[in-house]
UniProtKB/TrEMBL annotation, chain A:
Protein name, entry field: ABC transporter permease
Molecular functions per Gene Ontology: transmembrane transporter activity
Top-level taxon: Bacteria
Keywords, in A-Z order: Cell membrane, Membrane, Transmembrane, Transmembrane helix
Pfam families given in the database record: BPD_transp_2
InterPro entries membership: ABC_transp_permease
Taxonomic placement: Bacteria, Pseudomonadati, Pseudomonadota, Alphaproteobacteria, Hyphomicrobiales
Keyword Magnesium part of the UniProt annotation: no
Gene Ontology cellular component terms for the protein in this record: plasma membrane
Transmembrane annotation, as ranges: 68-86, 98-116, 122-143, 155-175, 203-221, 250-271, 277-296, 303-323, 329-349
Membrane topology according to the record: Multi-pass membrane protein
Main location, first listed in the record: membrane
Subcellular location: Cell membrane
Automatic annotation (TrEMBL), chain C:
Organism from which the protein derives: Aestuariivirga litoralis
SMART domains xrefs: AAA
Family recorded in the similarity comment: Belongs to the ABC transporter superfamily.
This protein's name: ABC transporter ATP-binding protein
GO molecular function: ATP binding; ATP hydrolysis activity
Pfam families: ABC_tran
Superkingdom: Bacteria
Keyword line: ATP-binding, Nucleotide-binding
Domain called ABC transporter: residue spans: 11-243, 260-503
CDD domains named in the record: ABC_Carb_Monos_I (cd03216), ABC_Carb_Monos_II (cd03215)
Length: 360, 312, 505
């Protein structure tokens, strides 16, 4: 910086116009694609072939496209969960654990109802998922407001804890599948499964629920007193407190809404895709949801769009691995690179170099 | 069987394991301490440790030299934290979000790199690991000898980093300036001194230390890399810095408490006491939350921690 | 003592200009300060005083012009260059590390190499303090010092770096009149050792003690005068550009009985009490002024009455009804408005539009809702009204509040709080950092509110404001009320003594 100044330039920070931000963000996302191409090269595959395989694997047919939407479904929920919390500048990193909590609580409520009609079981799993995620996130909110424990730390710790809790319940505990070796529950009762939307694909009602959730979050954020409070908390929690709105109440509310949304991701995975409760059905969606939320600019429809892109990455990656031999784990690196480049581009739009006509 | 726990040999091996297990946590926590004292909250430790573990393993495997592995980890940690520093110090991106992004990068890139490096192989090769370096005479002492003076070189380094960083922070001129950057950066700015330079230095040091901690997991202990093998140690290091009130010696104590829990867990499994292992494995995270809840106030936190400095 | 006697000036500024975006903050400014001269920079908020001092101290780089120290042209690109040239500055908001000792605060950021030689530094600083007759314990932590002592540390910090020209930015803003006297004694010592001083202020009694004064208005240097040859009125007119009508606070006989009544109000904090056994009464249509240096419990008193903090003991009654156990929203519902002292920290959400900020805290009221949704039309109409009524300079109620100037941001808060204040209005430094036009406007609004029979509490550090508006003034010091003065008996010396902690006889 000092060197720049001696050359007669100075870095100035200023508000960026939407157009300027768009240019910088596009440029940075392009950079992310180039960096990803380098990773393909490193794995010994032609980037063009790999990208083509990725696209074909994600959107090549109705079946793959519907798989993309299946993969996007939990990410819409966790992305919305993160977006709501981050809009209030409450750093809920716990969507990962709240996905588990939602699935576990839904299972706890539902598994005694085997044989009942879907009209009873489906509302139970949805409400159970909302409650499980909401309560687990509420725990972090209470830790923050009553015991001053930073929510970043507590939610991360809770993420680790619940994985062990599920393992305990499934391995030796009451939820283990009788006589089975794997850490998983027995197969779900048919009456509890989320209905499929079309024959020949795995696309289930959870996707519609996710899109509906995005619409509801959009209305809540922009049109209701609750959304007003969430946005006010994100801008100036202290001013809200001065006006008599309790910060503890707002924090609890934000965390519970956020956790409840994440909990639905768990329900969608367990009752819509895997039909069993197991860690493998639930892992990773919370953390990816953070990227989805930020790339979606913390806006509900942005989250839906970003989640579909990420769903495509997941779906396409498997095909790509078969086709080109590039490990599908690549996409996790690509996701992080996208996020970092986006953050850099967005921030860089706020800086400009200015010539200083210097006197002295 | 419980009585077995109280035999001297068992206690000595328990304590020796505590010190050994403490190494990666301590390296990462002491590095994070320096970064946070300069005002930067690096939440990307977990990802940095993972990348350190991976690159140390890959470099050691490729070169046949464990020290080349260590050097590779240090370089990786420095480079990753340089990227982090550029984002949060120069571009002033939100520190929490950027730290998370670094974790996701470390987690994604390490798995991919591992798979790409050993494409098509069903098992990845094992490297040798560092031997213990007993210190002449001292290692012969009863109890204290095997616990403190029969450890690996990286463990000695971690233990020595505590007084070294204490001396730097409290007894040197750059240390005073660095603490000032975390407390009131403007006091440096109005003397025409660069805050960014000090924070870059502190963050890069912290990243290198975290990666070194990660390297310990592969080249000094497991001999192989496994995805997510850090298993929350980066986050625990951050908790330790808070619980240790941002001071080197309490941080050492907090580290030993956490690693004792881990050592105890291994010991208990070893002698077959029937406690579900999941409970033991979850214990450090529960203790972490309790430790922060009991302490309540962020006593000792640098006043401007996590706030990017901007001249008004 | 003027710089025109042929000796080399300590500081010379030639044709300095500085532009921030569309604003020409400094327009072709030239001035000179002689060694051992006390030179005042006088001007309203936004006149360009801060920009000029920032350019001289290297915090901002001027667009045009030259700065010379002792005849040497400087190439100022950072404060380091200014310090090397012997320029020191004491900022209005102290730049100290509360958890460091006095010694560490002075030494930090100086010297080179790895070694921290505190012993040598201690020797030099002790000598410096002895010469200036300052008694500071170098090993005390700065957060245990009084405000006056912190200022000494700031001055010693500059001198330790070898300052021969010292810029003091609004140094008395946070001091009691007695502490200010002590500061002027210190300034005399500094002058005695040949140090030139630039004093930035808008207080006329301080200006009159300088050797020369430069008046800035709207970025331009209006005049540099020898202080002895001018008068307060002349300077005021130069500063404002027109003669200022002093507001006549028409004193109406307060109606009988208290509207607000506070008894034994005590608020405790982990370390001691924040306010201690406060009693006060305000009648309908009465303005009660609260004088005192900031940080003596005024904020806490108003926040407790407003329901933001819960008192440990004592009662608050408004029009006969107790409200000490109510929260801020319920207190507001009783017809209480509260303008906080730090408007961007406590009063506004920057990311919100003006219309949104105008209902902050009222988001659940029926008035602003249509069923479960917010009634945007009602909010917009309310915003339009407020913009017209309070002459807020903006293009519409959907504009974000973050871009408003200080004065216009304050008007948004005033619009919100005055609308709530049916019976009681709590004002904390309502005119701080606001330009003269807006100050007059706010004063007139306060008087209108009083004339409607609203009880008003006005906290201010500016005695002139308090004298102009108040019916009575109480003085707070260290969380207690030291005494009360009625209109007609207002006297700066007496109030100053109370502000410094002497009890009323």
């Amino acid at each position: 910086m000092r060197m720049l100044e001696h050359l007669g330039w100075r870095v100035v920070r200023a508000d960026a116009s939407p157009a300027r931000t768009a240019v910088w963000v596009s440029a940075s996302l392009l950079l992310a694609v180039l960096l990803s191409a380098l990773l393909f090269e490193a794995a010994g595959a032609s980037p063009a072939a790999a990208f083509a395989a990725l696209l074909k694997g994600a959107f090549g047919s109705w079946r793959t496209a519907s798989e993309t939407l299946v993969a996007a479904t939990p990410l819409i929920f966790t992305g919305l969960a993160t977006a709501v919390a981050f809009r209030a500048r409450i750093w809920n990193i716990g969507a990962e654990g709240q996905v588990f909590a939602g699935a576990m609580f839904a299972y706890w409520c539902q598994h005694g109802l085997a044989g009942f009609s879907p009209a009873i079981q489906l509302p139970v799993i949805v409400l159970g998922g909302l409650a499980g995620g909401g309560l687990y996130a509420g725990l972090a909110a209470i830790l923050k407001t009553r015991f001053n424990v930073d929510e970043v730390i507590s939610t991360v710790m809770l993420n680790y804890i619940i994985v062990y809790a599920l393992s305990l319940l499934l391995l030796q505990g009451p939820w283990s599948e009788p006589g089975a070796f794997f850490e998983q529950s027995a197969k779900m009762d048919p009456g509890s499964l989320l209905p499929l939307l079309s024959g020949g694909s795995r696309l289930h009602a959870g996707f519609l629920l996710a899109v509906a959730a995005a619409a509801v979050v959009q209305v809540i954020m922009t049109r209701t007193p609750v959304g007003y409070e969430i946005r006010a908390a994100g801008s100036n929690l202290r001013a809200l407190k001065v006006q008599g709105t309790s910060p503890a109440r707002v924090i609890l509310m934000v965390m519970m809404i956020s956790g409840a949304l994440a909990g639905l991701a768990g329900v969608a995975q367990v009752y819509g895709v895997h039909y069993r409760l197991k860690a493998g059905a639930l892992t990773g969606y919370g953390y990816t949801g953070i990227i989805v939320a930020i790339l979606g600019q913390l806006k509900p429809w942005g989250v839906v769009a970003a989640a579909i892109v990420f769903g495509a990455l997941v779906t396409g990656a498997t095909f790509m691995q078969v086709k080109t031999g590039v490990p599908s784990a690549l996409i996790y690196a690509v996701e992080a690179i996208l996020l970092l480049c986006y953050l850099a581009g967005w921030a860089a739009a706020r800086f400009r170099l200015k010539r200083v006509a210097h006197a002295g | 069987m419980l009585a077995d726990l109280f035999q001297t040999t068992v206690i000595v091996s328990l304590l020796a394991a505590t010190v050994r297990i403490a190494t990666p946590l301590l390296l990462a926590a002491i590095g994070e301490l320096v970064a946070e004292r300069s005002g930067v909250y690096n939440m990307g430790l977990e990802g940095t440790m993972l990348m350190g573990a991976l690159t140390a393993y890959l470099a050691a495997d490729a070169s046949g030299s464990l020290w080349v592995g260590v050097f590779a980890a240090l370089t990786t940690g420095a480079l990753m934290s340089l990227l982090f520093a550029f984002l949060v110090i120069t571009l002033q991106v939100e520190q929490i979000v950027t730290g998370l992004a670094m974790n996701l990068l470390g987690s994604g890139l390490s798995v991919y790199w591992l798979r790409a490096a050993f494409k098509g192989q069903s098992q990845i090769p094992a490297t040798p690991i560092f031997d213990n370096v007993p210190i002449p005479f001292l290692s012969e002492l009863p109890v204290i000898g095997p616990v403190l003076f029969d450890q690996k070189a990286l463990t000695y380094l971690a233990l020595l980093s505590v007084p070294a960083v204490w001396w730097f922070l409290y007894r040197t001129r750059p240390g005073l300036d660095l603490r000032c950057a975390g407390e009131n950066p403007r006091a440096l700015d109005i003397k025409g001194l660069s805050i960014a330079a000090r924070q870059y230095g502190a963050v890069v040091f912290g990243g290198a230390m975290a990666a070194l901690g990660g390297a310990f997991l592969t080249v000094a202990s497991a001999s192989r890399f496994a995805p997510e093998m850090t298993n929350g140690r980066g986050w625990l290091a951050i908790v330790i810095v808070i619980a240790g009130m941002w001071r080197p010696v309490p941080i050492l104590v907090a580290t030993l408490v956490f690693s004792f829990l881990d050592a105890l867990q291994l010991q208990i499994q070893g002698i077959g006491i029937a406690i579900p292992y999941q409970l033991m494995l979850a214990l450090p995270y529960v203790v972490a939350i309790l430790a922060l809840a009991v302490r309540r106030r962020h006593a000792g936190a640098p006043a401007m921690l996590g706030v990017s400095y901007r001249r008004e | 003592m003027s710089a025109t006697q042929g000796e080399t000036p300590r500081l010379e500024v030639r044709g300095l200009s500085k532009r921030y975006g569309p604003v020409l903050a400094n327009d072709d400014i030239s001035l000179a300060v002689a060694p051992a001269e006390l030179h005042c920079l006088l001007g309203e908020n936004g006149a360009g005083k801060s920009t000029l001092s920032a350019c001289i101290y290297g915090l901002a780089v001027s667009d045009m012009g030259e700065i010379l120290v002792d005849g040497q042209r400087l190439d100022l690109r950072s404060p380091a260059d200014a310090i090397a040239a012997g320029i020191g500055m004491v900022h209005q908001h102290f730049v100290l590390v509360p958890r460091f000792t006095v010694l560490e605060n002075i030494v930090v950021g100086t010297g080179s190499g790895l070694r921290l030689d505190l012993a040598a530094a201690r020797g030099r600083i002790t000598d410096l303090c002895a010469r200036l007759h300052l008694d500071i314990d170098l090993d005390r932590r700065v957060d245990s010092l009084s405000v006056g002592e912190m200022q000494w540390v700031e001055i010693v910090k500059s001198l330790y770096l070898g300052a021969r020209l010292l810029i003091l930015d609004e140094p008395t803003a946070v001091l009691t009149p007695q502490e200010s006297e002590r500061l002027f004694a210190l300034i005399a010592e500094l002058k005695g050792s040949g140090i030139a001083i630039i004093l930035i202020t808008h207080k006329m009694n301080e200006v009159m003690r300088s050797d020369r004064v430069s008046v800035l208005r709207k970025g331009r240097l209006v005049a540099t005068l020898t202080t002895a040859d001018t008068t307060r009125d002349a300077l005021t007119e130069l500063m404002v550009g027109r003669s200022v009508a002093t507001i006549e606070a028409r004193h109406i006989a307060a109606s009988q009985g208290a509207s607000l009544s506070v008894r034994g109000l005590t608020l405790s904090a982990p370390r001691g009490s924040l306010i201690q056994a406060i009693d006060l009464d305000v009648a309908p249509g009465e303005i009660l002024g609260i004088a005192g240096v900031a940080g003596n419990g005024q904020d806490e008193l108003l926040e407790t009455i407003a329901g933001i903090r819960a008192p440990r003991a004592g009662t608050i009654t408004l029009r006969g009804e107790p409200m000490s156990s109510l929260g801020a929203a319920e207190v507001a519902g009783r017809g209480v408005g509260h303008v906080p002292s730090d408007r961007f920290r406590d009063g506004l959400a920057r990311d919100f539009t003006i219309a949104e900020n105008l209902i902050l805290g009222q988001q659940w009221l029926r008035r602003w809702r249509k069923g479960p949704l917010l009634d945007r039309a009602a909010m917009a109409a309310n915003g339009q009204d407020a913009i017209a009524r309070y002459a807020i300079a903006t293009t519409g109620p959907e504009q974000p509040s973050g871009r408003l100037s200080g004065g216009n941001a304050q008007k948004v808060i005033i619009a919100r709080e005055f609308a709530k204040a049916q019976h009681l209005l709590l004002l904390n430094q309502p005119t701080r950092g606001v330009d003269v036009g807006a100050i007059e406007f706010i004063h007139a609004e306060v008087l209108a509110k009083r004339d409607q029979g609203c009880a008003v509490i006005l906290v201010s550090e500016e005695l002139d404001d308090l004298f102009a508006l108040s019916d009575r003034i109480i003085v707070m010091f260290r969380n207690e009320v030291m005494g009360e003065v009625r209109r007609g008996a207002f006297d700066k010396t007496a109030i100053g003594r109370l502000m410094a902690g002497a009890r009323a006889a």
